[in-house]
Amino acid sequence: MSNLFTWITEKFRKNTIIPIFLIVFLVCSFFIDKFFSLGNFVNILGQNAEKGILAAGMTFVILNGYFDLSVGTLMGLTSCLTVGLTPVIGLIPSILLALCLGAAVGLINGLLVTKLKINAFIVTLAGMTIFRGITYMYTQQTVRGSSKAFYELSRGSFLGLPNPVWICLAFILLGQAVLYFTRHGRNTYAAGGNMSSAQNAGINVDRTVILNFVICSFCAAVAGVMYASKFNSASPTLGWPDAHMLAIAAVVLGGTKLSGGYGNMFYTLGGLCTLGMINNAMNLLKLSSYYNTLVMGIILIIVLYMDIVLREQSVPSKRANIPGAPKKLQKE
């Protein structure tokens, strides 16, 4: 019995999102009417599907010890472009153009950070303001969609789950597969755990970081396209002012370290679901959105404290000892 208790305690210590998720779930289920129901859980997943894709991309960047503040406004820009250009060039070209723009933005961010050695905070903060300005230059009002098929894409469901949820889960699983079963994933953990050691081991750290910025911005573009489909419209205010902070909060609340080298997509999914349950509970309690903002601020403080605790628990010094990394990496 004592061995079982020790095993559970160790699992909870290494995977802090598990006890956090369980506590939030149990408290909400016991004290909030209509929370514990299948329909409400599906609703939580549906409301956070686009945020999940945003958080999945952010996970790659944070695993390298960086973060991207521009993803929220980039999401708004790609959403407006998709809806606005569809009557002009067609739906598919509009979506492809939005996705290519997202990848190009990530490439520029990565090059500025790695080649010009500009701080990632400055680069992505500048990007956040630039994309917001471009979006307002393109349109200063809500843009209405004209494609019924595009609108129905996000309204459909499969096995009881909305299509956006399946798309989100596909990105989570694909991201986890990349991190655990590919060379790029192993390089991501190594570079995040100790960049100097990774370079000495022959890893092209700059290429790894650039590719992760591309993945992050591409995911932001996908989220923007999904929002455009969900509402059959787009607003220049989409993603402003806190979409990037919610994505970072979901990633770090899940247990991924801001300093890099530790975490995975399932941690991020747990953090996303926890934030989604909190937001849903406040909506069921009919609390003002101002309270929601206050609670999210408190959560961010808790998230930063958790990051400090995780950093103290294990400071990776060698590639073979990077916590949270796949076993293949730890054996090399």
Automatic annotation (TrEMBL):
Chief subcellular location: membrane
Gene Ontology CC: one annotated term: plasma membrane
Record's keyword terms, sorted: Cell inner membrane, Cell membrane, Membrane, Transmembrane, Transmembrane helix, Transport
Places the protein is found: Cell membrane
GO molecular function: transmembrane transporter activity
Pfam family, one: BPD_transp_2
Tree of life domain: Bacteria
Protein's recorded name: ABC transporter permease
Membrane topology summary: Multi-pass membrane protein
Membrane-crossing segments per the record: 12-32, 53-77, 89-113, 120-138, 158-181, 209-228, 240-258, 290-310
CDD domains, per database record: TM_PBP1_transp_AraH_like (cd06579)
